[in-house]
Give the backbone structure.
Amino acid sequence: MLALFFMPFNNCTKCFLGMLYGKIMTIRFERREVLMKIIVGLGNPGKPYEHTRHNIGFDVIDALAEKWGTPLTNSKFNGMYTTVHRPEGKVLLVKPLTYMNLSGECVGPLMDYFDIEVEDLIVIYDDLDLETGKLRLRQKGSAGGHNGIKSLIQHLGTQEFNRIRVGINRPPAGMKVADYVLAKFSKEDQVLMQDAIVNSVNAVEASLSKPFLDVMNHFNASK
């Protein structure tokens, strides 16, 4: 048996090894091409959290799924997802069900499983430091106090991933931040957030065919 490891490579052996290597690389390439982008909306699972300020990421994912006609019916790594076949390529829409503070426990393994690079990730989440309904796209940055982003940075091992931040504004004086982000929008703010959801969907769709930097510059310059 050991003699096989010391036999000189003849032409047939080299041919076989070449074919085997080529097959392995083809499989890896095909697996890498399965998905082009992964779009993640952050939020908390469960009826009490639906359409709250902290769940705007979920709302954008739901809007994308509805527009593209593909509900999130698959589950893996404690998250719901769907694969969408777009003209630009395949896209994974994801809602982690880990609760906000543990979002990375879903997203990290999911990206590893589908062999998705971090540059193909876009994360959508609420931001207290932006006016209600205002969008701000970024290519990298710290968590800025957002525990969902903090978890993603921890599990991905980098701060350099694309984000769509959706403004929810700061709570009024005397109201705790936790109570504020887990509350639903006022009627006035609901109108602003519907526009924000539409704009977020448009930003995601634009990013499928254009560099994220170009999309970021366009939407960040919009009033």
The domain at 35-221 is CATH 3.40.50.1470 (Rossmann fold). The radius of gyration is 21 Å. The CA atoms of residues 65 and 71 lie 5 Å apart. Helices lie at 3-6, 11-32, 56-68, 104-113, 147-156, 177-181, 187-207, 212-221.
